[in-house]
Amino acid sequence: MPILGLDIVKSHLRVTWQNEDQLIGIYHAAAEGSAVSFLNRKVYNDETEMAAAVEAGTAGDDPMVANAEFHAAVLLTAGHLYVNREQVVLGVTAVDLPMGARDFLQPYRVGLGV
Predict the structure, then answer these.
(1) Is residue 16 part of a domain?
(2) pTM for the whole structure
C-alpha cells in the first residue's frame, strides 16, 4: 500500500485531470520504491502499521515511520519522473538542485556497510 495518496502526488504535480492517473501511479510507486531502497529499511505510514509489522516479524531491521523528509523526497522524485519522461534530453542544460530527494533521505539511511 502506498504511503502517500495519489491525490497528494497529483496536487504536487499540479494535475487535476484523471486521464494520467495510471502513469502518475507508476511514477509514484517507483518514487516510493526508490526511496525505500535508498534508505535500506522498510517505511510505514504510522506507528500502528509499523508495530503490526514488527509483531508479525515482517518489519526487517530498523523500520521507520514515514516523516516529512520521506514524503518530500517521494514528491520530488515523482515530479522529476513526470516532467522528464525520456532517459536522454537534448539541447538543455541540466543542474541538480540543492535539497534534492537524496539530501532529504541521507540522514535516515542505514546499513551502509564498510
Answers:
(1) yes
(2) 0.88
